[in-house]
Automatic annotation (TrEMBL):
Its main location: membrane. Residues 1-85 form the Ig-like domain. Belongs to the immunoglobulin superfamily. Contactin family. CDD domains: FN3 (cd00063). PANTHER family: CONTACTIN-1 (PTHR44170:SF10), PROTEIN SIDEKICK (PTHR44170). It comes from Perca flavescens (American yellow perch). Pfam families: fn3, Ig_3. GO terms for cellular component: axon; plasma membrane. Signal peptide: none annotated. This is Contactin 1. SMART domains: FN3, IG, IGc2. It is found in: Cell membrane.
Amino acid sequence: MAPSNADVKVGENTRMQCAASHDPSLDITFIWSLDGRVIDLHKDSQHYERILNGSSNGELLIKSLQLKHAGRYTCTAQTPIDNVTASAHLVVRGPPGAPGGVRVMNKTDKNVTLQWSRGADNHNPISKYTIQYRDSFSKEVWKNATTSPTDVEGNTEMATVVDLFPWIEYEFRVIATSALGTGEPSSPSPKDKTLEAIPVVAPSDVGGGGGSSRELTITWTPVQPQYYYGPNFGYIVAFKPQDGHEWSKVTVADPQAKRYVHKDPSIPPSTEFQVKVKAFNSKGEGPFSLTAIIYSAQDAPSEAPVSVDGRALSATEAIVWWLPLSQSNIDGYQVKYWRNQEDSEGRAQRVVVPGSENHTRLEGMKPDSHYLIEVRGYNSAGYGPASEHLQIHTKKAPPSRPPRIAGKKLKGRKVNIVWEHVEPLANEAPVDGYKVLCRQQGHSTGTLYTTSKQSIDLLLPTDGNYVVEVRAHTEGGDGAVAQVNITGGSVISAPSLSVLSLLLVALLCLNL
């Protein structure tokens, strides 16, 4: 039995018949070949399989057909003394192959005409073509193009892509489709740039105002690069006083620019202006943005704060106050302070205070130091003149040594804690008294006591672990801390080595 011609679709299975009559005493072998090349059934078992149906049958099963399996199949029946061959054609129908030779034939600022060569139809007529494009802004993503005509029929090899952006470099590819599916895309066309055009997009969010004295600050959101539409892209900024008739125009050549500051000594402060911005390139000028209303910069404060006074609160803090400025254009105050001898004014610390306040606290100061302090008003136009310098001398530092706990003992429901007097060093402030803080372990707050004595009676807590902190108090602040632990109605002190040894012996005895 010779194989028969077959016509199948991609992905299907088919069988090639082959049988021969022979002398049963002789061995028979069946060999299959495709277009003259012997098929290795073991190597290509994914697609080829021999069907065992008696020694005289050499039927071949072809699985999951691909386009490459089409061709002339030959079966050879061979015995030691003779052989016979028979052939049949297998046609495999599938989706179209990739079109070739895609190129741009003609272009304008928004359209290009493409031409290509049709690929293999793989025994099924091509019904339509799809055209795709990508550019430098699409991040390698291919998008379906809008074409004219909208539907590109399968019998054509040319179409026009429309609705593109001017002065953008594009690549194109073509994909063929038939009733059996969509084929692989063509290779991309050579990159080509559409022609230039006048900009049509205006900058957005036009506004501004503020800035330094005698300035008009105009701001906008720049146009995105895909809307440049041509080389030499920039902006034209137009402005005029609200009651003026002539627009002043300035060219800004930087396409990424976000602002323009017009400086003019004759600009009155806080004056209302109309402003608008448009884009331009080498082909011409685009439309203006919407007109915005902004105000020129106000003048910086002209008066210095007076009656500046203050005092040191501790070794590291002070408080300063002053009379508010009478001007209405004050946004706030800057307080600057530095050590008179040790620091230069350039290393001064600064505090900014809202215009509604006329005092502030200064922190991070050095102990026992002479400070110079100045205050000045400010607004969006800048800083006003500084006040006269105020001099403040910070307090001496608190004691750096903690109190030494001299004793602790239970007195009924109370615990008595005694400590030695802290003797300050020569550069430390004298002790005014002591602060005692009783807090639960793990907490930062608790009950605070003050005393001029060197002992205190505290009510024992009923349960839980507590920490008692003792520190000296001076005009310069609080000194170093000594701690005592209290737990469950008793005072805990660190046990000595001998006590620990006794506890371990007792535990060992209990376990015997």
